[in-house]
Amino acid sequence: MYLRNLKNSFFLIPVLFLFLTLTGYSQTDTTIKEIDAETDSSKLSDKLELVRKIGEIAIKQVVAENIEKKIHFRQMALLDELDKEINKVNERFKRGIDTVLINKEIKLIEDQFRIAAEGTFSGEMDIQTIRNLNTSTVLISEILTRLNENKKRTEALLSDLSPLKNRIDSLQNDTIIFKFAKDTALFKEYIVRLDKVVKASGPVDSSLTAAIKNLRETENYMVNLSGNINTRLELINGYKESSIDNVLLREVNNVYDPEESNESIDDKVEFSYVKASLVLNYYLRNNLGKVILALIIFLGLLNFTYKIRNQYYPDNTSDLSVSAKLVFAHPVLTPAFLSLTVLQFIFPHPPVIFYGLIWIFSSVILTVILWKHISGTAHIYWLYLFAAFIFTLTIDLMLKVSLLERWIMIFIALSGIAVTVSVYRKNVVIVKNKNVRFIFFTINLLLLSGSVIANIFGRYNLSKVLITTSIFGALTAFLLIWSMIFFMELFNVAAETYKSEGNENFQSKLNKYKLRLPVYLKYVLLAGWILLVARNLYFYDLLESKFISFINEEIVIGSFSFYSGKNYALHFHYSYFNINFKGSFILCR
After folding, report:
1. What 3-state DSSP class applies to 514?
2. Rounded to the nearest 5°, which phi and psi values hold at 330?
3. What is the maximum span of the chain, computed from C-alpha positions, in angstroms?
4. Tens of pLDDT along 479-492?
5. Nearest to 444 by CA among 426, 410, 427, 468
């Protein structure tokens, strides 16, 4: 090496150049003129060439040292970036990436799916009941929702981890890492920093790779499991269609013949209880947001009721009607009753156990509110209806046929016929339109009578559909009528409270609504009652599924595509009750 460092190079080059120049000029003195001019020229050229070589070497060294410094700067920046990515991974791990918990969740879903699917294949049960098929459909659908939530959570984890892994791999694969400086100081600084980063990145990279691998395997497993669940769901729907087609055919022995099944009643109850509890648990879990929304609306209605009540209590109660006094005498129970009866419509595809509990709570609250208001005879009829509903609901939750259950159904139907005739003759239920009253009681009698006949002669599924439609329809009609009465009383009192406020236009609108709202509510009441009855029927699910398919159907014309149903979705949303009205005439679930 000619030069030791850059500083010496800059000082040495000018000195050499000056020396060679002076030497060249000194040789032109008159004392040495006889020396050949060509020889002098050659020597001067050699010396100039030496200077050029020294300059080139200096330039190369300067360039090399600059390159090393640039490489060192890039290497340190890369290691800093890699260190930041490692810290990001550590922070992400601190927040938790528990693949074990996800796998446990999948194992639980698989176990519950087996329970849900039990008894849904031909030959797995002595008699295939539509009630069991319906419960299995609802439960499997809720399980599928839970599985999809886990899939989304896994995908979210992968979307967080995969970019981190890709970034770390990209930094680690940069070839500049493997360049080492000739300068001792730069080399030592880089090696120390590199060793520190390598020791930190090794465990993190291994953990990150393992986590991503497990998540991808879990994701693939859930995709396959989801496919299996959807396949079983399609099979169950096929069995339901077959059962509906054969609903008029005989399925079991006549009720007076020996029981076909050897399974104990306790086992049948246990089987039904497990599925019902799973359905309720899943439904509440998957619709927690709607439950919270219903609670918020209840609290708002409770606050509103208290505000209106304070305008009249305790001095102005004489101006209120009897029904209004009932509303404000129970300022907590009345909003609770209205919330339960009205807000149940915001829950899609509710299972029997869910709306059954809602109707039980609504009935208990209404009993407390009306107990001192209705007569002794009305007490008896109402308590019978409530008791008949409890037994019918319990029977409806039974998923396997038992002879005891069939005899109870017959008893409820026969007693229901007797009570219906008595209520009609004694005019206990007052309806202004006598034709509507006659039609309602006639339909109820036909349903109960048909249930008895179908049960006696082995048409179990048809018998259960008829009796549940009758009892559920009677109870929900009673609940909805009283909810309309309480709402109208609350509205009228509120209108009187704010009567002095606002301008004449406001007063005009208020009076118009007071006149028209009862008429609107009657139609809403009818539509709501039809919906409550119809959504327990299989035809309701069929219409809804076809409607959703129509909404989501994509039509492709050349390179242009559109969804035909979505153009009419808004209009169908408001005419949805009409669809349910048609479904209520199909007595199949």
Report:
1. helix
2. -130, 70
3. 158
4. 998 998 898 888 88
5. 468
Instruction: Give the burial string for 51-63 (b: 16+ CB within 10 Å, else e).
Output: eeebeeebeebee
pLDDT at residue number 213: 83
How far is the C-alpha of 180 from the C-alpha of 186, rounded, in Å? Answer: 9
At how many degrees (to 10) do helices 322-329 and 460-497 cross?
90
CA proximity to 547, closest of 524, 527, 575, 526: 575
Q: What is the pLDDT of residue 568?
A: 44
SS (H, E, C) 240-251: HHHHHHCCCCCC
Q: State the DSSP code for 86.
A: H
Residues 498, 504, 507, 513: is their CA dihedral positive or negative? negative
* 3-class SS string, 512-564: HHHHHHHHHHHHHHHHHHHHHHHCCCHHHHHHHHHHHHHHHCEEEECCEEEEC
8 A C-beta contact, residue 385 and residue 350: no
Number of Cβ within a 10 Å radius of residue 394? 14
pTM score = 0.70
Rounded distance between C-alpha atoms, residue 481 and residue 521, angstroms? 10
DSSP at 348: S
220: which 2 tokens?
């693939």
CB 113 within 8 A of CB 144: no
Which of 216, 221, 226, 218 has its CA nearest to residue 145? 226
Match 């399609």 to its residue by tokens.
234
Dihedral (Cα; 492, 495, 499, 501), 10-degree rounding: 170
**Burial class for 371, CB neighbours closer than 10 Å (0-12, 13-18, 19+):** exposed
| Separation between Cα atoms, residue 483 and residue 370, nearest integer Å | 12
Q: Is 85 exposed, middle or buried (0-12, 13-18, 19+ CB in 10 A)?
A: buried
Residue 114's identity, in one-letter code, is: R
> Peptide bond preceding 348: is omega within 30 degrees of 0, i.e. cis?
no
CA distance 533 to 541: 12
Those residues of the chain that have pLDDT short of 50 are 1-32, 34, 551-552, 562-589
CA–CA gap between residue 88 and residue 171 (Å, rounded): 14
Output the pLDDT for position 169. 67
Q: Using alpha carbons only, how large is the chain's radius of gyration in Å?
A: 43
Is 426 strand, coil or helix? coil
Q: Is there a contact between 342 and 310 (Cβ–Cβ < 8 Å)?
A: no
Amino acid at 207: S
**Dihedral of the alpha carbons of 273, 276, 279, 281, in degrees to the nearest 10:** -60
CB 152 within 8 A of CB 175: no
Residues with Cβ within 8 Å of 392's Cβ and at least 6 positions away in sequence, in order, are: 412, 467, 468, 471, 472
Rounded Cα gap, residues 441 and 422, in angstroms: 11
- Is residue 129 exposed (0-12), middle (13-18) or buried (19+ Cβ within 10 Å)? buried
Residues 6+ apart with CB under 8 A from 426: 377
587 with 537: CB under 8 angstroms? yes
End-to-end CA distance of the chain: 97
Q: How remote is the C-alpha of 1 from its chain's centroid?
A: 74
